[in-house]
Protein backbone atom coordinates (compact mmCIF):
# COMPACT_ATOMS: atom_id res chain seq x y z
CA UNK A 1 0.00 0.00 0.00
CA UNK A 2 1.36 3.41 -0.90
CA UNK A 3 2.10 6.16 1.57
CA UNK A 4 -0.69 8.28 0.14
CA UNK A 5 -3.24 5.49 0.63
CA UNK A 6 -2.13 4.96 4.24
CA UNK A 7 -2.38 8.70 5.00
CA UNK A 8 -5.84 8.83 3.40
CA UNK A 9 -7.01 5.87 5.51
CA UNK A 10 -5.68 7.48 8.71
CA UNK A 11 -7.39 10.75 7.85
CA UNK A 12 -10.73 8.97 7.33
CA UNK A 13 -10.39 7.17 10.68
CA UNK A 14 -9.59 10.41 12.47
CA UNK A 15 -12.65 12.09 11.03
CA UNK A 16 -15.09 9.32 12.03
CA UNK A 17 -17.36 10.12 15.00
CA UNK A 18 -16.12 8.69 18.28
CA UNK A 19 -19.40 6.85 18.91
CA UNK A 20 -18.76 4.62 15.93
CA UNK A 21 -15.89 2.99 17.84
CA UNK A 22 -17.42 2.73 21.31
CA UNK A 23 -19.86 -0.07 20.66
CA UNK A 24 -22.62 2.09 22.13
CA UNK A 25 -25.62 2.86 19.95
CA UNK A 26 -26.23 6.48 19.18
CA UNK A 27 -29.17 7.81 21.20
CA UNK A 28 -32.46 7.92 19.33
CA UNK A 29 -34.63 11.01 19.43
CA UNK A 30 -38.41 10.79 19.66
CA UNK A 31 -39.78 12.74 16.69
CA UNK A 32 -42.91 13.92 18.55
CA UNK A 33 -41.36 15.20 21.78
CA UNK A 34 -37.72 15.68 20.81
CA UNK A 35 -36.69 13.73 23.94
CA UNK A 36 -33.83 11.28 23.76
CA UNK A 37 -35.22 7.73 23.92
CA UNK A 38 -33.59 5.30 26.34
CA UNK A 39 -32.77 1.90 24.87
CA UNK A 40 -35.10 -0.81 26.21
CA UNK A 41 -34.96 -4.59 26.37
CA UNK A 42 -37.13 -6.27 23.76
CA UNK A 43 -38.83 -8.89 25.94
CA UNK A 44 -41.30 -11.15 24.15
CA UNK A 45 -44.91 -10.82 25.34
CA UNK A 46 -46.32 -13.80 27.20
CA UNK A 47 -49.93 -14.93 27.15
CA UNK A 48 -52.07 -14.12 30.17
CA UNK A 49 -52.62 -17.27 32.23
CA UNK A 50 -56.00 -19.07 32.04
CA UNK A 51 -58.56 -17.39 34.30
CA UNK A 52 -56.38 -14.35 34.86
CA UNK A 53 -57.25 -10.74 33.95
CA UNK A 54 -54.40 -8.63 32.60
CA UNK A 55 -53.78 -5.51 34.71
CA UNK A 56 -52.18 -2.52 32.99
CA UNK A 57 -51.54 -0.26 35.99
CA UNK A 58 -48.42 1.89 35.96
CA UNK A 59 -45.48 0.80 38.13
CA UNK A 60 -45.39 2.19 41.68
CA UNK A 61 -42.54 2.51 44.15
CA UNK A 62 -42.52 2.05 47.89
CA UNK A 63 -39.27 2.44 49.74
CA UNK A 64 -36.49 0.73 47.81
CA UNK A 65 -38.81 -1.50 45.78
CA UNK A 66 -40.67 -0.83 42.53
CA UNK A 67 -43.80 -2.89 41.85
CA UNK A 68 -45.98 -3.55 38.85
CA UNK A 69 -49.24 -5.47 39.08
CA UNK A 70 -49.70 -7.51 35.90
CA UNK A 71 -52.49 -10.01 36.63
CA UNK A 72 -55.55 -10.72 38.77
CA UNK A 73 -57.65 -13.80 39.46
CA UNK A 74 -60.60 -13.59 41.82
CA UNK A 75 -63.50 -15.75 42.93
CA UNK A 76 -61.45 -18.96 43.13
CA UNK A 77 -63.13 -21.53 45.39
CA UNK A 78 -59.96 -23.57 45.81
CA UNK A 79 -56.74 -24.67 44.16
CA UNK A 80 -54.65 -27.66 43.19
CA UNK A 81 -50.95 -27.76 43.94
CA UNK A 82 -48.24 -30.35 43.36
CA UNK A 83 -49.23 -32.23 46.50
CA UNK A 84 -52.54 -30.81 47.74
CA UNK A 85 -56.02 -29.62 46.91
CA UNK A 86 -57.42 -26.95 49.16
CA UNK A 87 -60.69 -25.02 49.45
CA UNK A 88 -60.87 -21.33 50.33
CA UNK A 89 -62.65 -20.23 53.52
CA UNK A 90 -64.23 -17.57 51.29
CA UNK A 91 -62.63 -16.94 47.89
CA UNK A 92 -59.04 -16.92 46.78
CA UNK A 93 -57.77 -13.84 45.00
CA UNK A 94 -54.40 -14.04 43.26
CA UNK A 95 -52.47 -10.88 42.40
CA UNK A 96 -49.52 -11.35 40.00
CA UNK A 97 -46.77 -8.79 40.62
CA UNK A 98 -43.31 -7.90 39.43
CA UNK A 99 -41.05 -6.69 42.25
CA UNK A 100 -38.03 -4.78 41.03
CA UNK A 101 -35.04 -3.35 42.90
CA UNK A 102 -33.79 -0.35 40.93
CA UNK A 103 -31.16 0.41 43.57
CA UNK A 104 -27.53 -0.58 44.04
CA UNK A 105 -27.94 -2.57 47.26
CA UNK A 106 -30.12 -5.49 48.35
CA UNK A 107 -33.67 -4.79 49.45
CA UNK A 108 -35.86 -7.15 51.43
CA UNK A 109 -39.25 -8.33 50.12
CA UNK A 110 -41.76 -9.62 52.66
CA UNK A 111 -44.97 -11.14 51.25
CA UNK A 112 -46.63 -11.01 54.69
CA UNK A 113 -46.69 -7.18 54.57
CA UNK A 114 -48.75 -7.00 51.35
CA UNK A 115 -52.48 -6.24 51.63
CA UNK A 116 -55.53 -6.73 49.41
CA UNK A 117 -58.10 -3.95 49.83
CA UNK A 118 -61.84 -4.56 49.54
CA UNK A 119 -64.77 -2.17 49.09
CA UNK A 120 -65.72 -2.38 52.79
CA UNK A 121 -62.34 -0.81 53.69
CA UNK A 122 -60.71 -4.02 54.97
CA UNK A 123 -57.02 -4.69 54.28
CA UNK A 124 -56.60 -8.48 53.97
CA UNK A 125 -53.19 -10.13 54.55
CA UNK A 126 -51.63 -12.73 52.28
CA UNK A 127 -52.81 -16.24 53.12
CA UNK A 128 -49.65 -17.93 54.39
CA UNK A 129 -50.92 -21.47 53.80
CA UNK A 130 -51.94 -20.83 50.18
CA UNK A 131 -48.72 -18.91 49.56
CA UNK A 132 -46.62 -21.83 50.85
CA UNK A 133 -48.70 -24.52 49.12
CA UNK A 134 -48.47 -22.71 45.76
CA UNK A 135 -44.69 -22.44 46.34
CA UNK A 136 -44.56 -18.67 46.36
CA UNK A 137 -41.84 -17.04 48.49
CA UNK A 138 -42.48 -15.54 51.94
CA UNK A 139 -39.49 -13.25 52.22
CA UNK A 140 -36.27 -12.86 50.29
CA UNK A 141 -33.48 -10.46 49.43
CA UNK A 142 -34.07 -8.71 46.14
CA UNK A 143 -30.62 -8.04 44.72
CA UNK A 144 -29.54 -4.81 43.08
CA UNK A 145 -31.09 -4.54 39.63
CA UNK A 146 -33.09 -7.77 40.11
CA UNK A 147 -36.72 -8.35 39.03
CA UNK A 148 -38.93 -11.11 40.42
CA UNK A 149 -42.36 -12.09 39.13
CA UNK A 150 -44.64 -13.89 41.59
CA UNK A 151 -48.16 -14.42 42.90
CA UNK A 152 -49.69 -13.11 46.11
CA UNK A 153 -52.50 -15.38 47.38
CA UNK A 154 -55.31 -13.92 49.52
CA UNK A 155 -58.30 -15.72 51.11
CA UNK A 156 -61.07 -13.14 51.56
CA UNK A 157 -64.82 -13.39 52.31
CA UNK A 158 -66.84 -14.76 49.39
CA UNK A 159 -68.99 -11.63 49.14
CA UNK A 160 -66.05 -9.18 49.34
CA UNK A 161 -65.38 -6.96 46.35
CA UNK A 162 -61.71 -6.35 45.48
CA UNK A 163 -60.72 -2.72 44.91
CA UNK A 164 -56.91 -2.49 45.16
CA UNK A 165 -53.69 -3.98 46.45
CA UNK A 166 -51.31 -2.12 48.78
CA UNK A 167 -47.70 -3.10 48.20
CA UNK A 168 -44.91 -2.54 50.70
CA UNK A 169 -41.24 -2.37 49.81
CA UNK A 170 -38.12 -2.29 51.92
CA UNK A 171 -37.72 0.98 53.85
CA UNK A 172 -34.80 3.13 52.69
CA UNK A 173 -31.70 3.29 54.88
CA UNK A 174 -32.50 5.13 58.11
CA UNK A 175 -36.27 4.46 58.02
CA UNK A 176 -38.15 1.73 59.89
CA UNK A 177 -41.30 1.54 57.76
CA UNK A 178 -42.98 2.72 54.57
CA UNK A 179 -46.57 3.80 53.86
CA UNK A 180 -47.12 1.37 50.99
CA UNK A 181 -48.18 2.09 47.42
CA UNK A 182 -51.77 1.37 46.37
CA UNK A 183 -52.62 -0.04 42.93
CA UNK A 184 -56.31 -0.06 41.86
CA UNK A 185 -57.57 -3.43 40.60
CA UNK A 186 -60.87 -2.43 38.96
Structural class: mainly beta
| Portion in beta strands | 35-45%
| Spans where pLDDT lies below 50 across 5 or more residues | 18-22
CATH architecture tag of the largest domain? Sandwich
Structural commentary:
The protein is mainly beta and 186 residues long. The protein folds into two domains: 3-37, no CATH class; 53-184, Immunoglobulin-like (Sandwich). It is 12% helix and 41% strand. The chain contains three helices and 13 strands, in the order H-H-E-E-E-E-E-E-E-E-E-H-E-E-E-E. The chain has helices spanning 3-15, 19-22, 128-133, and strands at 28-29, 36-37, 53-54, 60-62, 65-80, 85-100, 107-110, 115-118, 123-125, 139-142, 147-156, 162-167, 181-184. Strands 3, 4, 5, 6 and 11 form a five-stranded antiparallel β-sheet that branches. The protein has a four-stranded antiparallel β-sheet with strand order 9-8-12-13, with no helix packed on it. Strand 4 and strand 5 form a beta hairpin. It is elongated, with a radius of gyration of 24 Å. Residues 18-22 have low confidence and may be disordered.
